Amino acid sequence: MSLYNLRGRDFLCLKDFTGEEIRELVKLGLELKRRYYAGERTIPVLAGRSIGLLFQKPSTRTRISFDVAVYQLGGHPLYLSWRELQLGRGETVPDTARVLSRYLDGIVARVYAHRDLEVLAEYSDAPVINALSDFSHPAQIMADLMTIYEKTGRLSGVKIAFIGDGTDNVLNSLMVAAAKLGMNMSIATPRELYPNRELLEYSMELAGETGGLVEVTEDPIEAVRGANVVYTDVWVSMGQEDEAERKRKLLEGYRVDSSLMQHSPRAIFMHCLPAHRGEEVTSDVIDGPQSVVWDQAENRLHAQKAILSVFIR
Ligand code: CP
Ligand code: NVA
User: Tens place of pLDDT for every residue, the chain, 313 residues?
Assistant: First the structure.
């Protein structure tokens, strides 16, 4: 199958792609990783292309891995801080998008409001790639799928237990990926943080067609039983500082610690990072033998090289 028809499109949400396209992108990421380790440090498919990296929020992994990914593909990355552009003084998102796309061949953007990504995409002629919004984080999930494939040898049929904040942006993208790929996903979260209904219903229904399963429980032990992957993310996402106290109280029983991991002794432990050690995960788990978080973080680079090489014209 060719990914050629994705060229020039935006990468905003995994819902926009078929299971087969997602699988092919994962394969391409694995292939680019293999070639990198075989000594091909540069594959100049972005030669002559300039890619803007527009960030409204802090970032370590996404910012640096996209920058290095563009460089390794022979392109020119420009880091653009939202605050330091005229955006920070009130120039509108549509006007900014129109101007940026006269200079740039692609815009990688991390924003608070997901709607801003959609508006950027609407007004930019250059493809827009989601680098996290309050709603989703699909670039993260491409690296996660690569990691799951590397560690378990498959995607379909893998059981992922997500423990923690049911309203999490990373979870939203993971849920869609699981449904598209026929994976089995069990989300353990308190009733007060129940996942986005529309997305959950979409994922449950789609999983029914792909041979997967998406379910929600309040019981972390039930979720991790039989899991191949135990996944968590921070309890308080960027921009939710006002809700920190409430969320910490609600999620107190949803920490991934060694006693929870004992219920799935063969599972790998994943976290998109940054981790708040002692909060959503204890140090003995994240530093323990089941943890694959550093490989997962590395795969951001290879997965994003796949995304850039496919979507940028
Ligand atoms: N996982 C992730 O997106 O990390 P950063 O916030 O450091 O980019
Ligand atoms: N849910 C987290 C993910 C960070 C990569 C946040 O949005 O802050």
Answer: 789 899 999 999 999 999 999 999 999 999 999 999 999 999 999 999 999 999 999 999 999 999 999 999 999 999 999 999 999 999 999 999 999 999 999 999 999 999 999 999 999 999 999 999 999 999 999 999 999 999 999 999 999 999 999 999 999 999 999 999 999 999 999 999 999 999 999 999 999 999 999 999 999 999 999 999 999 999 999 999 999 999 999 999 999 999 999 999 999 999 999 999 999 999 999 999 999 999 999 999 999 999 999 999 9
- Give the ligand at the shortest distance from the Cα of 143: 1
State whether the beta carbon of 59 lies less than 6 angstroms from ligand 1. Answer: yes
**Does the beta carbon of 273 lie inside 6 Å of ligand 1?**
yes
- Do both 117 and 144 map to the same domain? no
Whole-angstrom distance, CA of residue 156 vs CA of residue 178: 8
- d(CA 235, ligand 2 centre) in Å: 9
Catalytic site positions:
110, 137, 140, 233, 272, 300
Q: How far apart are CA 233 and CA 169, in angstroms?
A: 9
Q: How far is the CA of 291 from the centre of ligand 2 (A)?
A: 19
Q: Is the CB of 272 under 6 A from ligand 1?
A: yes
Q: Judge if the beta carbon of residue 237 lies within 6 A of ligand 2.
A: yes
Work out which ligand 2 atom sits closest to the CA atom of 238: 8
Query: How far apart, in Å, are the Cα atoms of 164 and each of 142, 204, 279, 280?
Result: 21, 19, 10, 7
Question: What is the domain range of residue 32?
Answer: 4-136+300-311
| Residues 24 and 78 grouped into a single domain | yes
Distance 213 CA to ligand 1 centre (A): 27
Comparing CA positions, the residue from 256, 192, 248, 249 lying closest to residue 221 is: 256
DSSP 233-261: --SS-TT-GGGHHHHHHHTGGG-B-HHHH
- 85 shares a domain with 234: no
